[in-house]
Design brief:
about 100 residues; 5 helices; mainly alpha; 2 domains
Length: about 100
């Protein structure tokens, strides 16, 4: 039979305290601002792919998903949004409107 301390520890692990909830709410505005900056201009799809890869907890050859997110975002930008990426690299800043597929 589990002791009282074990039951309390299990119960505390499933609860979110008020400080944790407030900290989560405080981060939401920063997250919203980051999403608006990342997805509000050019290269939206590659930014979304990079975010999805970075949010996935994995590692290949001891290299974590943060590195693979950069690689995946760059590959997707080269394959799907090449004209926008090249315009950004050239510094022209010209927004190329992609036709919907």
């Amino acid at each position: 039979m589990p002791c009282k301390a074990d039951r309390n520890r299990r119960r505390e692990g499933n609860q979110i305290g008020v400080p944790d909830g407030l900290a989560g709410l405080a981060v939401l505005s920063a997250l919203q601002d980051a999403f608006e900056k990342a997805f509000g201009t050019t290269l939206r799809f590659s930014a979304l792919v990079a975010f999805g890869v970075a949010a996935t907890p994995f590692s290949i050859a001891g290299i974590t998903s943060a590195f693979w997110a950069i690689i995946a975002g760059l590959v997707v930008a080269l394959l799907v949004e090449r004209s926008e990426l090249l315009a950004h690299w050239r510094g022209t800043g010209a927004k190329v409107s992609a036709s919907p597929a």
